[in-house]
Design goal:
Elements (H helix, E strand, L loop, with lengths): L1 E5 L11 E7 L2 E6 L2 E5 L14 H23 L8 E9 L4 E10 L9 H8 L3 H7 L3 E5 L3
Parallel strand pairs: 1-7
Antiparallel strand pairs: 2-3, 3-4, 5-6
Helix pairs in contact: 1-2
């Protein structure tokens, strides 16, 4: 991920916005299209462990995007969706601190034929979060007084 920084930046009003506000300690509230999500840190890291960490939400984004793409594929092809589940484990890396690997396991519902596995996997590989991870995005971080 390429990162650039600046003291101030112009905000494009047509872009989707995610806003994060400090709630106290290591807790923050994320506002997305009228929805609210809280993040925190585990007690061992100085937080109160009241919510997932930002990193856990990052991993959850990949897992849930994979699940969404799988469900859409299955539904489009009149295949069962009941019991679809995605489990994702991850490893942390250092220097820089980051998620260094993901292991995404898609548990298929009963009745999905083997002949659909390869095209289903190809569809899941097209999920937006996966695409973002595999095609380095430009990130600009700026300070706004």
């Amino acid at each position: 991920m390429r990162a650039t920084s600046a003291v101030s930046a112009t905000t494009d009003k047509t872009s989707p916005t995610v806003s994060v506000s400090h709630l106290g300690g290591d807790r923050f509230e994320i506002a997305v299209r009228g929805h609210r999500i809280t993040v925190d840190q585990p007690e061992a890291m100085g937080g109160d462990d009241t919510a997932p960490t930002p990193t856990e939400l990052f991993v959850a984004s990949l897992a849930s995007c994979s699940a969404f793409y799988a469900r859409r594929y299955l539904s489009r092809h009149d295949l069962p969706v009941e019991g679809l589940r995605v489990e994702t484990t991850y490893a942390m890396g250092t220097t820089p601190s980051r998620v260094s690997s993901f292991d995404v396991k898609v548990h298929l519902p009963e009745g999905v034929p083997q002949s659909r596995h390869k095209p289903l996997l190809a569809m899941i590989d097209r999920c937006t979060v996966h695409g973002t991870l595999t095609h380095e995005p430009e990130v600009t971080i700026s300070l706004v007084p």
